[in-house]
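S.,

Sequence below, as promised.
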Amino acid sequence: MQREYFQQVKITNFNAASAKYMFNICQNLVKYFDIANNYIWIGTTKNNLIPLASFLKNHEIFLFKTLTDIVVYDVPGKKNRFSLVYNLFSDNYNSRIFINLQVSEGSPVNTLFDLFKCADWLERESFDMFGVYFVNHPNFRRILTDYGFRGHPLRKDFPVSGFYELFFDSWVSETVYQKIELVQEYRNFDFPSPWSKKSFIN
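The prediction came back faster than expected:
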């Protein structure tokens, strides 16, 4: 009865009704929920991430069986500097839902690989670019940068020019790493605000 009703109503009504229904069923898993631009946004905690994702994937009213993306936001000054947004899609209802999770630097997050196989690459990318660590991941290694790369390029406190440069040294016939040397005076950036005018004044 409930499933037939949600299939007949419009997407906006489906989102509003399903959000309230979901919040009533799993209040202990959801910190908050909101509806913006006809999409459901819900917040959760690390311990509740897997139960909530499993509920949204397998419940017949939702059936969010596809993990489309994992987006990471970095705000260095916050206690929980990383915001992970899981983008789930339901083919049955042509609808999306976003799960928001706040984590601190170095705090591990449970992998969703057992629920969504595509989480393999998405979580590796989040670790490579931001340093978010996922536990119980079957193949946890870098995916976009070199194996010897140091740091995480998309962190807000990572310098624009990086710390090291990689190049092929013809004298030793191998690829080498070395610290970047900025000899031009105008490239002496101050990392907190690299594009402000004072950075270019000697």
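The helical segments are 2-8, 11-25, 49-58, 119-130.

Coffee later?
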